[in-house]
Specification:
about 110 residues, alpha+beta, Glutaredoxin, two-stranded antiparallel ribbon, 4 helices, 4 strands, globular
């Protein structure tokens, strides 16, 4: 028997019909999965939001996720919001270069 493993992104469900906007691509994909099952194909699905261990335990999927994370970090490192806290109070939000100034005013 043929087995297909599908690793879905973090979704509330795999059908695509939840929420306000129906994702037609997910609806079509869900129908295709149902058809595959009707043809005797074993389909195993894991949703990142509901089964994160399945992603962490699968070597190839783990490597793909790490590569994607590295790519996102590289692209957005300069645009990440900085929100330093002093105690539980935010100070100098988004201003990493000027962090010392607001902190100096609040340190006793």
């Amino acid at each position: 028997m043929t087995t297909i493993e599908i690793f879905d992104p973090a979704l509330c469900c795999s059908t695509g019909v939840c929420g306000v906007d129906v994702d037609r691509a997910l609806v079509t994909f869900a129908a295709d999965v149902d058809w595959l099952k009707s043809q005797g194909v074993r389909v195993v699905r894991a949703n990142l939001a509901q089964q994160p261990p399945a992603f962490a335990e699968h070597r190839q999927i783990r490597q793909l996720l790490r590569a994607q994370i590295d790519l996102v970090r590289a692209r957005h490192a300069q645009r990440l919001a900085v929100l330093p806290l002093l105690g539980e109070e935010p100070v100098g939000a988004g201003r990493l270069a000027r962090l010392v100034q607001p902190l100096a005013c609040t340190i006793p």
